Amino acid sequence: MRVYIDDTHHDHQAEEIIEYRWDRIIGAMLALVLLLAGTVGGWYLMRPSPTPAPLFTPVPVIVPVDRPEPEKAAEAAPPTVVALEESPGHTGDDSKPASKGVQSQPSIVGATLSRVQILSEALVRARLTRDVVNREPVGTASALIPMNAGGLIRVYLFTEMDGLKGQTIHHDWYLNDQRMARVTMRPQGERIAASSSKYIDQNMRGAWRVEVTTEQGEPLARSEFEVR
Predict the structure, then answer these.
(1) What is the domain partition of the chain in residue ranges?
(2) Cβ count within 10 A of residue 160
(3) Which CATH entry fits the domain spanning 81-227: 2.60.40.10, 1.10.10.10, 2.30.30.240, 2.60.40.1220?
(4) Where is 184: in which H helix or E strand?
(5) Is the distance from CB of 205 to CB of 228 less than 8 angstroms?
(6) Where do Low complexity bias regions lie (predicted)?
(7) Cβ 155 vs Cβ 138: under 8 Å
(8) Strand pairing category for 123-129 and 152-162
(9) What does the alpha-carbon distance between residue 21 and residue 3 come to, in Å, rounded to a whole number?
(10) Helices and strands of the chain, counted as H and E runs
């Protein structure tokens, strides 16, 4: 505010006095500060909240899905089994006993026992049997073998050979003159015992025979039996 003093009674120069209203100035400054503070606060409250940073990076989890296994095909009759045995003094593989799935069949009282024709001096022993244990045949199979209640039997042909080392020997199993199986063996010793076996199910009843021959077709032994 400016104040002008007019003194007509004196000839000296007029003096100009300037006075500032500090209360108003300070009040205006405070109002400006409050306005700025309100504007900044409103902007801070109205701005979008930043997305918080993840505490960890998500890792995809792969869960294995169990798939049903394909249905297994129905198992047919067990395959022909070969058991080779060395004579005492030479180590060989032990023969395998009949599987649990084959039920034992009691012998028929008064039944005629099967016979094996030995057709070569190279064959020391030969026997048709229902089992081979500890490298030896157990009993002699009958010429007429009945089918058991389980519908599956097993028949062995046991042979002991001498002087056929390195040669190829065949055991051929025939049903009604049709060859059903061929078991091939190659003796690794001069004197060796070898047995082959054949599983026979209820659909394979009939006249059976087993022939033992060399690779050149020389007959060594022959046996016949019937399954009913």
Answers:
(1) 2-46, 81-227
(2) 19
(3) 2.60.40.10
(4) strand 178-185
(5) yes
(6) 75-86
(7) no
(8) antiparallel
(9) 14
(10) 1, 14
Match 């055991």 to its residue by tokens.
Answer: 171
The pair of structure tokens assigned to 175 is: 């049903």
Segment holding 79, helix H or strand E:
none
Q: Residue 85 corresponds to which tokens in the numbers above?
A: 């045995």
**Contact predicate 14/7, CB 8 Å:** yes
The tens place of each residue's pLDDT in the chain, 228 residues long, gives 544 445 444 444 545 556 667 777 787 888 887 887 777 666 666 666 666 555 444 444 444 444 445 444 344 455 554 565 444 433 333 333 334 444 445 444 457 999 999 999 999 999 999 999 988 999 999 999 999 999 999 999 999 999 999 999 999 999 999 999 999 999 999 999 999 999 999 999 999 999 999 999 999 999 999 999
Contact 128, 143 (CB under 8 A): no
Tell me the C-alpha distance between 16 and 103, whole Å: 140
Residue bearing tokens 């108003």: 24
